[in-house]
Amino acid sequence: MRIAHHGISADVPPGWEARIYRRTDDEPGATTAPVLHAATFALPEERGDFGGGAVELMGPGDAFVALVGYDAAVAGTPLFARQGLPRRPRSSSFARNKLQHVIPGQGGSQFFFTAAGRGWCLYVVLGSYDDRDALLARVYAVLVTIVLDGDSVVVPEVPDVLR
């Protein structure tokens, strides 16, 4: 299934749930940039941009992906210097202490980059740090399909083993 909204589109593999939204500027501290959430479990209605309220529900075989947009003014600044969405982050980039809230057993990582004229953060949480290689293979199946409006990155074909 393909999901598309607010300049983000992605293929959602079977067994995944995904939502794209943009908060209104009347919410205290909210960003109005687009946000994509994709998960191997049911996403709760109430959750933070980086998965607060959702990642606490994960089991060891689950994965959560947040793609959070930022204002165009941060594009290309030192934090967002990397160009393009990291589509295949290495398992060595993940750690137990790279989570917004440390949850025993989980691992995660975040990647800041510029694409489609704005800054972005990709935040990935894996239900089991010890099983990160297998879980990352599932995450790659989503990441390689993401298209950001104006992003000139050519999306590689996903090997059948990842579908």
Describe the structure.
- The chain has 163 residues and is mostly beta strands.
- The chain has one domain.
- It has 1 helix and 8 strands.
- It has one helix at residues 132-143, and strands at 2-5, 8-11, 17-22, 34-39, 63-69, 107-115, 118-126, 147-148.
- The strands form 2 sheets. It has a 5-stranded antiparallel β-sheet with strand order 3-4-5-7-6, covered by helices on one side. The protein has a 3-stranded antiparallel β-sheet with strand order 1-2-8.
- β6 and β7 (118-126) form a beta hairpin.
- The N and C termini lie close together (12 Å).
Any descriptors?
163 residues, 3-stranded antiparallel beta sheet, globular, mainly beta, disordered C terminus
